[in-house]
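Encode chain A's predicted structure.
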Amino acid sequence: MQSASDQPPEHDYPDHWEADVVLRDGGTARIRPITAEDADRLVSFYEQVSDESKYYRFFAPYPRLSAKDVHRFTHHDFVDRVGLAATVGGEFIATVRYDRINDRGLPASAPADEAEVAFLVQDAHQGRGVASALLEHIAAVARERDIRRFAAEVLPANTKMIKVFTDAGYTQKRSFEDGSVRLHLDLEPTDRSLAVQRAREQRAEARSVQRLLTPRSVAVVGAGRAPGGVGRTVLRNLLGAGFTGRVYAVNAALAENDGPVAFDGVPAHPSVAAIGEPVDLAIVAVPAERVPEVVADCGEHGVQGLVVLSAGYAESGAEGRERQRQLVRQARSYGMRIIGPNAFGIINTAADVRLNASLAPQMPAAGRIGLFTQSGAIGIALLAGLHRRGAGLSSFISAGNRADVSGNDFLQHWYDDPGTDVVLLYLESIGNPRKFTRLARRTAAVKPVVVVKGARHSGSAPPGHRVPVTRIPHATVSALLRQAGVIRVDTVTELVDAGLLLAAQPLPAGPRVAILGNSESLGLLTYDACLTEGLRPLRPLDLTTAAEPADFRDALVAALADETSDAVVVNAIPWVGENGATEFGDGEVLAASLREAVASAQAPTKPVVVVHVEMGGLAEALAVATSTRPPTPGRGAAPAGPRPAGLPTEPGAGPAGPPAVSGSSAVSGPPAVSGSGGEPAGLRPGPRAGGSGPSGPGALGTTPPEAAAATAPGAGAAAGAPASVSVPVPPAAIPSYPAAERAVRALAEAVRYGQWRRQAAEPGRVPEYEDIDEPGAAALIERVLGGDDADPRGVTLDTAQTGELLARYGIAVLPTLPAPTPDAAVAAAGRLGYPVALKTTAPHLRHRPDLGGVRLDLASEEQLRTAYAELTEVLGKPEELQPVVQAMVPRGVDTVVRSAIDPAVGAVLSFGLAGAASELLGDTAHRLVPATDRDVAELVRSLRTAPLLFGWRGSAPVDTPALEEVLLRVSRLVDDHPEVVAVSLEPVVVAPRGLSVLGATVRLAPPPPRTDLGPRSLPSY
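Encoded structure for chain A:
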């Protein structure tokens, strides 16, 4: 008879437990179930574990595994006995297993809900966060198998393992028994465990990006012998940018016995293996069919990341898609991350790195804007546009097919990157919308995130990247992004416009705009543009065409000191003298006067923008590519190239570009002046919560509290990086625009973002309602979905079930009685009491009062019978109309409350006014679930027709608090029970006092997977 541990597996291999994870140091590992085929891997793994680690695992010297041990640790039933392994390069680096036990600690089966868990991590991989990742995954497996608690026995000296358990965030108990620490963990996720998981995710993914952006050595694989070609172009760009690390060229056509070979002065080798030195980053520029051998060569010799420029992948069809999948699997198996394939490349302008591993021929000036694009062509255009307008970058990424590293990863990096103050994203799809929204909301709380989304109407996705297809319209996606604090723009021009303002100016404290200039007409255009964008412009100040630069300076100084405005727009047109020459020196003199005015402000808290007409000299003078801030400690504030005008060029520096001040904290955009207390005047889009002003704690551009460790002296800088140097503080950054509409639109985005930031400092709450019966609702849902006749695709609840479920959440639905005949209608009215309403419920007439399918205020049997006859005579037979009778309710405004699960963005709460006009105009507002009290208040007020709720044209205001409560209750229902995939309350009649829900439908279905709540993992291929 076989013992429990000797029985063969009872369940199929659970391939959905396989996952790729990012570890603490930025490398990757694969987590998968252990099977009987892993015996040799397990033995090899165990041989590489130190005697001390073996002792900690088995509480005694245990030099080798017996054949029985190997069998036990590799044969699982995947229910009561489960083992997972973390692998790199196909070999085990760590294992974890659980065995279900009963209350006496003996092997058991369900319904026992406790399991004993044990880990073993190879010494060379300890400290990489492997055990923490394995704990998340084994806990998720256990919950799937109805195990609710883990028990673990740990020696007191094994402090690392104790810390893994205690830091996980689960509810736990600890005791000391027989010389060991006994831990019990409740596996139900808690707010703390989720916060711990997401903090670890952020650190790991940010580190994986940092490894790509800050390599100490780079190999260009595919550099040709002759100049030209992609490989040699990247090699030339690396050298031209002045990369501070080591550079190697790799060309497979070279032979080992060729002797020393150099391309552009760089040592060339036939393979990465032949280099004989560590290589951190490989730029792959070989034909797609040769990429697998390059990946293997890199992986086997410790390369940390790949930038794959090669084409011929998912963009080329089905064969290319499969090739792309294999590329990702192969790279991850070695612990490497990939940018691309079909990528344009990456750039890091930090002075201690100066990496241009891209096809961009010119290194952008150093600045504080982080730029991510999914398109090489758009990336080229944005680089050119930002450079032309004097803006510098901290880093740039054009990810191509985005098979692995995505915009989410770079949001994780930029969130606490002290060298980035503004994030610009060009996206054609969002691979993990829930995660993107979460990361964008967190990042937007400390620095602006500006997004332009391509393919808004075609719904296309990056080639070969599996992304959920959204069913909600583009306007809804925009509204949800704005809820997360994202600045959503429509064009790449607007992306640059907004980015320039946010990178160079403080956030406005409100919507009041002062307008001044030497053109009355241009002032009026600016005034009108402000009104269009929802701003509050003051009367324009006309300086007349005779105004000189000194007049502009004095007027701007006064406007900055005026407490009745929050921002200033300066309009300028050429002033031509009698001899036909401009009096302003083609703009340079005026630019200097405006900078002087900004510099004179004691506390520069107002943004200033310039609108110029046919004054290219002014635009160029304001767009001189100099930095906006002195170097920031913690980002390797070494002199950055190109060097600022007037400073000598260091030997070996790259080709001169637009002048820029050293230090990665510099924005090589319009010039800036330092503010009070040594803080610069630019780059402070508003204080954070708790901040006292632009230079106070938490001001944008300072380090967020969560990033304190990352900004310690020396963090992120290469060893031996030169110390910062003192450079002259350049004049103030003032963005300029060739049209009033563009300047005002960018300013309006800054106003809205500033308002969001102030509100985010005091976030709303999800109220608790004592009358909500969550267990009762869950039981009803389980009863409906668990029935023998339940449709696996879902079911729409009948009227009684809908009313019962909504009542569990405090939402009362007005009774509706069927009226298949006139006599039945009269009987129903008798039960409900007059006056009543008679309605048709046929699908083609439902919620269409404009078609005449509703009769109201029927006060007697005679009126009811007459109305019944009219309906059936005009619209059809009773069996077609499906008439019903309802009691009359107080008159008010008819509204619609809905919630639905979208595959791309999750649960969405929607609100609008009922009626064809609202539907025709698309006047519906949306918020993500769970919605807070602040969210629903904004939801109600964001409609264009919202004035109808607040006493428009003398009507009585309705009970919006009652309406907001219903919205919050629907949000709670959908959030508490993911099986509720759709809810519709229509109409909801909101009266001056109270409201009435006249109709409701609810649809249930098995809940869709929540990828954002499971253990950490990379998108699967």
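The mean pLDDT is 83.
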